[in-house]
Design brief:
The structure holds 2 protein chains of 2 kinds. Chain A is mainly α. Chain A contains 12 helices and no strands. The termini of chain A are far apart. By secondary structure, chain B is an alpha/beta fold. Chain B folds into 2 domains: 2-120, Glutathione S-transferase Yfyf (Class Pi), Chain A, domain 2 (Up-down Bundle), CATH 1.20.1050.140; 141-296, Rossmann fold, CATH 3.40.50.11810. Helix content of chain B is 48%, strand content 9%. In chain B, the strands form 2 sheets. Chain B has a 4-stranded parallel sheet, with helices on both faces. In chain B, β5 (147-151), α7 and β6 form a beta-alpha-beta unit. The N and C termini of chain B lie far apart (40 Å). The mean pLDDT of chain B is 95. The chains are: A mainly alpha, B alpha/beta.
């Protein structure tokens, strides 16, 4: 049997995932039972289920893992995390892989990174989410045709007072932006 | 008791019915809500996908802004609830993370000591702190004969599973049983609604929504009760598109649990945000009220 420490030593990608995920060291205890993929509501759409992905991380297949669609199918429902018999924080590992994929420019085959970027861009600017701004920007730049389909839904939301035409900016936006700027410096993210 | 209140962005506009009914019900139960002054968005799942430290720092600003004299916080949105609770936990578990987040907060003249604020959900506060006897005491319009499917979604019950059973939660079932409703067995009650997949990949999201609607129809539920704005939005606003996609004919009202709780407490529907849902709920409520009146007569 291969010693877990030895395995971590042999895969630099495994060490990276462990370093970048809170509680990530649990990954070396994966039994390959498949409870994660079997529980996942989007499992059938994944190129590799989490179980397979963990074996690939073990084998140092960094590019294949980070360019897969697996983590972008994850909507953070945490069912895999709850069910994992080895208490691996699978959802948090998916978050880690999303971050690494974006950083390495390997995120593709999904509009999820674009949605995330548009969402947090508005948050950085106003301090609050702005749905009309999010929907119009996201669809316009990523799936303009879908904008036509979304029109009637947007209108019925608007007529029921469920969509605002103007963003709301918090009073302490400069304070929030100072905190965000510091976080980017400390965290080293772009 | 006084609680800090974090409504979150959804409750400001797209789920105003939740905010209105939460405030109405809380007032009736003497749960004092003190809105956090100038709170900011929790980042939903979108910041954690890009930058963990910024995600935590943005969320921690809200915890830092909680009044010194208040020890507990209520977040009705399941995603906000999880983000606030998760950030507090990440800071509690790791001195390094605590230090890094506080370095960021200091740039805005703020600080937060992990564990200082206990993050709660209103359902848990009503179920646990107010309790069965006090809830029953407030009922003026028992929900007798109304069949409800309690839908919890995922982010409240998981992964912080100290609040309820992570796969088959019961607190909303209990609450509506106390109110006299017929709570149907809803096996998908903690299944995922698809979250932001309605924006990214409609076929994936629509299948998840279809299963949730079909299960409630199979159980002959009159409506689905939600405790998360994302769940309500997906099941209600996208119901028509799900019908179009599958050739289905769902017409199931999707409301917030606090709206129906308010009805049982005798609050007028106009004061509970009814009318904002896409699939009209009031006709179903009124038909039930008519049946209930006829049964009494």
């Amino acid at each position: 049997m291969i010693d877990t420490a030895e395995r971590a030593h042999s895969s630099s990608f495994l060490r990276e995932v462990i370093r970048e995920t809170p509680g990530g060291e649990r990954i070396i205890h994966c039994l390959q039972c498949g409870s994660c993929g079997g529980s996942c509501p989007n499992g059938p759409d994944m190129q590799y289920t989490p179980r397979t992905l963990f074996a690939m991380i073990n084998s140092n297949k960094r590019t294949e893992v980070l360019s897969s669609n697996t983590m972008w199918c994850c909507v953070s429902c945490y069912l895999c995390t709850t069910r994992c018999p080895q208490s691996i924080p699978i959802t948090d590992i998916m978050y880690c892989l999303k971050r690494l994929a974006i950083r390495e420019g390997l995120a593709k085959d999904s509009d999820a990174p674009a949605l995330a970027k548009t969402f947090t861009g508005l948050l950085d600017r106003y301090g609050r989410s702005f749905e009309l701004g999010l929907a119009s920007r996201f669809y316009l730049f990523n799936k303009p045709l879908a904008l036509l389909r979304m029109g009637p839904l947007g209108l019925s939301m608007f007529t029921r007072g469920r969509m605002s035409l103007v963003p709301k900016k918090i009073k302490g936006i400069e304070q929030l932006q100072a905190i965000i700027k510091k976080a980017r410096q400390v965290g080293g993210a772009s | 008791m006084k609680y800090a209140y974090y409504p979150g962005c959804s409750l400001e506009v797209n789920s105003a019915a939740y905010d209105i009914s939460v405030r109405a019900v809380a007032q009736l139960l003497s749960i004092e809500l003190q809105e956090i002054d100038d709170w900011n968005c929790c980042g939903a799942t979108e910041y954690f996908s890009q930058d963990e430290l910024t995600a935590c720092a943005v969320i921690a600003r809200n915890l830092a802004l909680v009044d010194d004299k208040v020890e507990q916080l209520i977040a009705p949105c399941a995603a906000c609830f999880l983000n606030l609770k998760k950030t507090d936990k990440l800071m509690s578990d790791s001195a390094e993370m605590n230090g890094r987040v506080n370095t960021c907060l200091a740039a805005g003249g703020l600080s937060y000591r992990p564990g200082r604020v206990l993050v709660r959900h209103l359902l848990d506060v009503i179920h646990g702190d107010i309790g069965e006897a006090a809830v029953r005491d407030k009922v003026v319009r028992p929900l007798t004969g109304l069949r409800v499917a309690p839908y919890y979604g995922c982010q409240w019950v998981r992964p912080m599973s100290d609040v309820d059973n992570p796969e088959y939660p019961m607190k909303m079932d209990d609450l509506f049983t106390w109110l006299g409703a017929e709570v149907v067995d809803y096996p998908v009650k903690a299944h995922c609604c698809g979250g932001h997949m309605t924006q990214i990949s409609e076929p994936q999201a629509f299948e998840l929504i279809r299963r949730l609607l079909q299960s409630a129809v199979d159980a002959r539920a009159d409506m689905i009760l939600c405790m998360c704005p994302m769940c309500q939005l997906n099941l209600d606003a996208y119901q028509g598109r799900v019908n179009g996609h599958f050739g289905a004919e769902f017409k199931l009202p999707i409301i917030f649990f606090t709206q129906l709780l308010g009805i049982a407490f005798g609050i007028a529907p106009e004061q509970l945000g009814f009318g904002k849902e896409i699939v009209a709920a009031l006709p179903v409520i009124k038909a039930w009220l008519g049946r209930a009146a006829a049964a009494v007569a």
